[in-house]
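About this split. The held-out portion is used to measure sequence recovery: a designer receives only the structure tokens and must propose an amino acid at every position. Recovery is the fraction of positions where the proposal matches the reference. Here is one held-out target exactly as it appears in the evaluation file.
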């Protein structure tokens, strides 16, 4: 009996391990993308460290820690007045004249981001593949560089649009991108799609993060993948059901077998009694077979 319980517990361990592997492999697939908001804050902090006695209008490269490798950032400090007249054209972001940072401050800084190889771990565009790295920019109050809290500003433009010029080096093909590609801007988890303003150029009226995307054509392939996923789940449950069914069946079979052995023992005893009566008849050998069989089976099952 103890032996039987041991066998059964081993089966349960196998089932538990199987389900654990199944569930954990699913959990691994659901890797949450890193938070863009916290990245913005971290890059802003690093950028303001780079602004130590800065020259107005000069672009400074931001030192990026190893934990953010693959990402590039730069920063420029500007006077609102001259910015209004001239605009600024740095880091693939062309901001025209007549753009105002709001609320109004004397001096402000623009932090430029190029998420490079990390783009897809911070931003996702379901149904599209990202053809370029994500480029972003944001304005911050830089009137007092030693102040602790840094206020984020809005850059608002009503006339000329801000252009994001994706350089050739970022494009998947050297000829540039045709009309099947789209611009996407990311705004607090929302995606805004628009046509390219010019080849390889996206246009915007506010700061944010931008990327050029291409629709994924193989919709059928994705459906197939989903089908395979469900088949996999079905198989897993089917397999578990089979194991449990087998286990229950085995127990029932053993129980029945033992009952039959008991019955046969009883029968053998009876036939033995009868056998003595039947001495000399042709039924003698078959009676002996019946008698020896339960003894062998009985030896296999420890009581
Ligand atoms: C999962 O997310 C972490 C950051 O949270 C990242 O370092 C890792 O590369 C991601 N893994 C996959 C498979 O996406
Ligand atoms: C901005 O700079 C890019 C290259 O850095 C250049 O191609 C573009 O003409 C510039 N735009 C203006 C308005 O100067
Ligand atoms: C700048 O901020 C620091 C720290 O908050 C403060 O001590 C200092 O007075 C501020 N300077 C000006 C000019 O407001
Ligand atoms: C910036 O603009 C957004 C909407 O475009 C608005 O919700 C937010 O209050 C604005 N912030 C400032 C400081 O003006
Ligand atoms: C756009 O370019 C891709 C390859 O880069 C090509 O497969 C596709 O047919 C082109 N679409 C148009 C409308 O030219």
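Reference sequence for scoring:
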């Amino acid at each position: 009996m103890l032996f039987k319980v041991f066998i059964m517990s081993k089966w349960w361990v196998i089932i538990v391990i199987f389900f654990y592997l199944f569930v954990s492999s699913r959990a691994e697939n659901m890797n949450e993308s890193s938070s863009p908001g916290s990245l913005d804050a971290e890059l802003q902090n690093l950028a303001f460290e780079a602004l130590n006695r800065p020259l107005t209008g000069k672009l400074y490269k931001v030192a990026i820690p190893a934990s953010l490798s693959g990402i590039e950032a730069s920063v420029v400090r500007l006077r609102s007045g001259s910015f209004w007249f001239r605009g600024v054209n740095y880091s693939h972001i062309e901001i025209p004249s007549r753009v105002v940072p709001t609320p109004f401050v004397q001096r402000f800084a623009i932090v430029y981001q190029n998420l490079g190889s990390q783009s897809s771990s911070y931003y996702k565009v379901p149904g599209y593949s990202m053809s370029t790295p994500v480029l972003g920019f944001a304005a911050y109050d830089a009137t007092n560089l030693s102040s602790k809290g840094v206020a984020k500003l809005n850059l608002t433009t009503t006339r000329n649009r801000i252009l994001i010029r994706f350089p050739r080096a970022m494009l998947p093909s050297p000829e540039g991108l045709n009309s099947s590609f789209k611009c996407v801007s990311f705004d607090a988890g929302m995606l805004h799609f628009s046509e390219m303003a010019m080849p390889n150029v996206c246009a915007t009226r506010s700061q944010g993060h931008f990327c050029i995307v291409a629709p994924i054509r193989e919709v059928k392939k994705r459906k197939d993948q989903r089908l395979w996923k469900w088949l996999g789940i079905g198989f897993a449950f089917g397999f578990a059901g089979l194991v449990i069914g087998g286990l229950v069946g085995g127990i029932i079979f053993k129980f029945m077998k033992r009952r039959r052995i008991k019955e046969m023992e009883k029968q053998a005893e009876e036939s033995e009694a009868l056998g003595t009566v039947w001495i000399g008849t042709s039924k003698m050998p078959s009676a002996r077979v019946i008698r020896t069989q339960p003894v062998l089976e009985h030896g296999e099952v420890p009581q």
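Annotator remark: The longest strand covers residues 72-79.
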